[in-house]
Amino acid sequence: MAKIPTPRPIRGTQDMLGESADRFMHVVETFERVRKLYGFRRVEVPVFEATAVFSRSLGETTDVVSKEMYTFEDRGGDSVTLRPEFTAGIARAYVTEGWQQYAPLKVATHGPLFRYERPQKGRYRQFHQLDAEIIGASEPLADAELLVFADQLLKELGIVEGVTLTLNTLGDYQSREAWRSALVAYFEGHRDQLSEESKDRLHRNPLRILDSKDPGDQAIVAGAPDIDAYLTDEAQAFFGKVTDGLKAAGVAWTRNARLVRGLDYYRHTAFEFVTDRLGAQGTVLGGGRYDGLIETLGGPSTPAVGWAAGIERLGMLLDAPSSGHLAFVLAPMGEQAERYCTGLMASLRRKGIPCDMAYRGNLKKRLQRADASGAEAAIIVGDDELALGEIVVRDLKTGEQAKRKTSEIEDPRVGHSATYGLLLGGLGGRVSVSD
């Protein structure tokens, strides 16, 4: 019989086990802990939406919409798209679910996103992001709070070394339009020297030329006018309050006058936390203020600001995280011992003590498995010892072992710390741990 071929994973997707999964979960767990400190409510939105949610919010001419979205027609004939980012779906829910009543609304989420682009280090077609948004707040301190949140997240992940917060202002509507006109005039004067992509962007989206990676474009961009000459007094005051908030919170930043967001609804603050440790994929967290987005989805004029960060990229910057700490591995030798260990393991776990069981092999192999797991000790249970009401605890680092009374270990009134003490006390100089 011919061998049935095994389907291969889809290009740009990933399977995670061991360290990669540990890195992923460490990022998520840290994010969940920090967002609670800042009062951000957990929100969930669908993994697919009507295509219009993204085409309206991201813009029909952006690369994401024109080249990268996973869009298909469902059985009902509707065009739906796997979400390429979180903000549009959250903005749609803000309008359709009546979340305006909670404004200003601070929400956070994480999960998978989908973009059809060339996979490379730190970039996948199914990737994962953290996301935080404040909707319905026009105050510059909302921008500052999000930046302080992001800064603390990176600090608690331990990846601030080599990571820099770069900050810019896009001004208010009047500032941005005046700057846009100045950029068009400047780039028109150098049209013949621009790349074809930048020529295409010249009147549709001239700010995106400032993002160009083309070496010829970059030489021209170096002489382009900065937004500072076009900022209104109100826009300057807004940016000043954002930076004052960062100073008060002790968050360092640098100005990047070339940092932009191409879509017209972006206003005021734009920011990126960047690193030189990931090659070309240098941005680990980025965002900005998008005061006009919700209007594009049929909602009322609503100020908002937010950021997103790639979980995979953050995970790549982590030191190798712990895979979890096992206190004990149980090694039953005999049928009665197996039944006993099943109950003992359940009891230990209910007390908050992490443990596992070595089910197969002789005692030597079971102890080898226990040692390889990184556990502190093995609990050896044989039918003969069990008949005497005893178990054996073996310190896997020192090899010391001692007998313990089952009646003491089984007592449900004995808590987490006391159980540790009963099992490990006197072995290798160990003492009981705190709850």
Describe this structure as you would to a colleague:
- The chain is an alpha+beta fold.
- The protein has helices spanning 19-37, 51-58, 63-68, 87-96, 140-157, 173-188, 196-204, 215-221, 233-249, 293-296, 311-317, 335-350, 363-372, 383-387, 406-410, 416-424; strands at 41-42, 48-50, 71-73, 79-82, 105-114, 126-135, 163-169, 254-255, 267-275, 283-289, 304-310, 328-333, 355-357, 377-382, 390-395, 401-405.
- The strands form 3 sheets. An 8-stranded mixed β-sheet has the order 1-5-6-11-10-9-7-8. A 5-stranded mixed β-sheet has the order 13-12-14-15-16, sandwiched between helices.
- Helix 1 (19-37) runs antiparallel to helix 5 and helix 5 (140-157) runs parallel beside helix 9.
- The longest helix is centred in the first third of the chain and has 19 residues, at 19-37.
- The radius of gyration is 28 Å and the shape is elongated.
- Keywords: Aminoacyl-tRNA synthetase, ATP-binding, Cytoplasm, Ligase, Nucleotide-binding, Protein biosynthesis.
- Homodimer.
